Amino acid sequence: MKGFVFHGPGQSAWEDVPDPAIKEPTDAIVRVDTVSICGTDLHILKGDVPEVRPGTVLGHEAVGEVVEIGSDVHTTQPGDRVLVSCITACGRCGYCWERTYGQCRGGGGWILGHLIDGTHAEYVRVPYADLSVHALPGALDSKDAVLLADIFPTAYEVGVLNGHVRPGDTVAVVGAGPIGLAAIATARLFAPERIIAVDLMPARLDAAKQLGADVLADARETPEQLIADLTDGLGADVVMEAVGAPESFEMCTRMVRPGGHVANIGVHGKPVTLHLEDLWIKNLTITTGLVDTYSTPTLLRMAAAGRLPTSSLVTHSFPLDQMEEAYDVFARAADTGALKVVLGGEQHEVVAVRAA
């Protein structure tokens, strides 16, 4: 079969790789139909995730059909159409008992496209399939469903829920890429007074407006002052970092009100300065986190009911075998306007980012 293989920083290729096989009785083999590319995949290609060994097939988001199961798999059968979660859960360790699947100590957590071969291939082996794949409603389109493998649960759990968004809050989201946009969409479920989107790219700010942002702020034009003006000098109740850069995290800490929450969602590849000399007195809560995907079943039901604007994030579609072109388009988002790039499934012409 073919797979997209990481060969070291800046080196990758769509090439022949061995077909996956059942290794444990809890495994399932899934024929991949639709995948998407994550910003974390780009971090891997840059060398920001040194745990990924050269020779690893990348990818951790997919929709497909189960073609084979191990003897100890009970919740899915060959022929089932499933969502492959970005997080694998053994279901037996203490973290899994607490639904903190991202910290699984039984061989799970974020392993696909990280510690083992991932989903950017024609077939993928999914360990612990009972808790790591989800049956899909027949009416849910694959390109909608694949966004629930990672970005929507990540934005919802690590951003909105960790940030304790409440009705009437002022919420600021720094970074209007796919994760930031999903955070805006899911924050709206809690009826905040206003959502402020901060980014450098006008097209992304336009997309943020479509998804429910009330105020748009150019990151180069002192958004901290704008938020202070809107909140009588206090700052935002909840600020989400959805970039993964030192300057954006420090900006978030300057935007939040005393007693507020800073929810870091971004993947950081460089050290960040935490200015405790300024922050110790502000009673802040700062959270970090890897998604646990405990919310995936709820989000799937909401998407099937038309309650989540998933497809509006998809700006480019490619056949699965155009993986290298798709990565290039996604990596050059400033030039291409890419938000979420989807491969496989029903094909559509490559389109530009939707404008307001």
What features would you describe in this structure?
It is a single chain. The chain is α/β, with parallel strands linked by helices and 356 residues long. The chain has 2 domains: 2-150 and 293-344, Quinone Oxidoreductase, Chain A, domain 1 (Alpha-Beta Complex); 155-287, 3-Layer(aba) Sandwich (Rossmann fold). 26% of the residues lie in helices and 24% in strands. The chain has helices at 39-46, 94-97, 129-132, 142-145, 151-161, 178-187, 202-210, 223-230, 246-255, 276-279, 296-304, 323-331, 333-336; strands at residues 2-8, 11-16, 28-36, 56-57, 62-69, 81-84, 123-126, 133-135, 170-174, 194-199, 215-218, 236-241, 256-264, 285-287, 314-318, 340-344. Strands 3, 5, 6, 7, 8, 15 and 16 form a 7-stranded mixed beta sheet that branches. It has a 6-stranded parallel beta sheet with strand order 11-10-9-12-13-14, with helices on both faces. It has a 3-stranded antiparallel beta sheet with strand order 2-1-4, covered by helices on one side. Strand 10, helix 7 (202-210) and strand 11 form a beta-alpha-beta unit. The longest helix has 11 residues, at 151-161. The radius of gyration is 20 Å and the shape is globular. It starts with a strand and ends in a 12-residue tail after the last strand. Mean pLDDT is 94; it is low at 347-356.
